[in-house]
Amino acid sequence: MQFSPRVRGLLAWLAVGYLGLPALAQTRSWVASSDGQWDDPSRWSAADPPDTLAESARFDVFGAYGVYFPPGAERQIDDLTVVRGDPSFRALSPGEATLRVAGDAVLGVGQGTPQVRLVRTRLEVAGELSLAPGSRLEVDQSGLAAGATRVGGGVLASSTTLRLLAASGVALGDLTIAESGNNDRAGVVNLELGTSAEVAALRIASDAPEAVGELSIAGSTLRQLDGGVAHIGREGGLGVTGNGSVAVFSGGELSLYDATVSATGSLVNSGGSVEVRYRLAIVGGRYAEPTAATLTLGPNAELAIEAGGEASFAQSGLTISDSRLLTVSDARLAVNGGLVGLVVSGGAVSIAGDSTLSGPVHVRGGGLTIAESSVARFTGDYSGRPAMGPGLALFEAGLTPAGVGFAFGGDVELADAARLAVSLHPDGWTNTLLADGTVALGGALAIEPLGGEHTPAAGDAFELVRASNINGAFASVDAPALADGLEWRIEQRPGSLVLRVAEDGPPGDFNGDGLVDAADYTVWRDTLGSSGPLTAADADDDAFVGPGDYSAWAAAYGQSPVAVPESGAGSLAIAALVLAPLARGLPLFVAGFPLRS
């Protein structure tokens, strides 16, 4: 029995939507590689254009040809299959036509690599839109919607390409690019010329070891729906040589909800804008901004760089503001662009493993934490609040501490290339380097000049470092000039390093009061073993406090511009000097030789 097209469509809807039964669709095939109207019966097998859910359309002829729709036409079919050939689906001007596919749309069957084009024709696929390896779909001034979209990996002859040109209302569902393929050709999706699109889940070359997948956004917008998960690239390992990449160019906007860039993946923002609404994890992969671009973290969003991953900002800065989180774990973050580099302002930065942060780092608010048994290497200048947590902060460039009230939670090491910058204030306040752990000195010490009208005077003292323990020494000290007769001296004790203004007194005058007396012995004893320039108890100028300095003090004892104490008083003083170190169980040095109690 023959039914009219309208009745056949009604039966199909009843079978699929109401009765829950599969529709028995009949396939109609385009019969020649020449232009024609979709509604022209002579162009189809059985002289019956597919236009109901009980019919599917099949294109299996070589050559390039056009399939035309009346302006504003809406056609619906069950499945769409393009085996081979280069059909172009077009709506006659003016207006846009719509082709609705209740099932799946397949481009490329067997060895077929069709090149399909939509011009002013919106394609809506309720099921899956699939581009077989080597096929191509170009959507020009049209719309596209699919429950899921699958763009195969490339083949030896050509890539597989979905190109969206000035397309609007594009909804790709779960988008998969290059689930298989080879290293020679890629599965490619391009958004160009003002295209606006959205996806749910996104997978790019995340399965096959040699798959190559590419997504590029230029002058267009792609938004990932809330709850969607994106995987770019796959974990590295033996035999894994593929690559999954996303490139955002000038005028491009990418809004991600939850995305992971794995070892073979990359996300490159070249002059565009990337927004992260929940989490962007660079797990062994790479995020790069080679040119001025924008990365925006939404409220409560996280940027995580882990497992050998790397994020670099060549010409832009990165700000971690209120409620945002930056995690760096066994990874590298390079923020070398912009005027300020990495700015922590109300947000949180967590560092774990052996991680490197290069470029300027400014901690103005919020917090930066180094986990236990972890090392944070700062190869750019660091200023502001210190790092919390018990891990090691290793500085290989400038360090300007915040001062009193803010202490590093763990150990601090100043490498050979480090430079500790300390500002002195007339009231004795300094931005002291404070640490709950050990501070290992090295590199250079830079003393900023006193402010205001204050002129340094003998006896002024400034605490530069306070920690549970201090070792090592500065290789150089850059300090402002003092008035004639005054000099800078550094007293380094186990838990404190103090800079003093002292009178230029005789050898052995370690505290700079112009006298060589018992008080100088105390300075020598407390700083014994310390080294570096301007060391207070370094009488022999060898940048080390040791036995030779004791000998110099002993030889000069009693020298002063004032009267020497009477013999009785002098004897008592000398007795005190001899007994004090012995009482403490310390060796007493006389002429460079230790005497033990």
What does this structure look like?
The structure is a single chain. The chain is mainly β and 597 residues long. It has a domain at 505-595: Type 1 dockerin domain. The protein is built from 4 helices and 52 strands. The strands form 4 sheets. It has a 38-stranded parallel sheet that branches. The model is unreliable at 1-22 and 562-597 (pLDDT under 50).
Keywords:
single chain; 597 residues; mainly beta; Type 1 dockerin domain; 38-stranded parallel sheet; 8-stranded parallel sheet; 4 helices; rod-shaped; disordered N terminus; disordered C terminus
How many distinct helices? 4
Within CATH, the superfamily of the domain at 505-595 carries the name Dockerin domain
Sheet with the most strands, sense and barrel status? 38 strands, parallel
Rg over CA atoms, rounded to whole Å, is 38 Å
Would you report the number of β strands?
52
What is the top-level CATH class of the domain at 505-595?
A: Mainly Alpha
Binned, the helix content reads: under 10%
Proportion in β-strands? 35-45%
Mean pLDDT: 86
Low-pLDDT residue spans? 1-22, 562-597
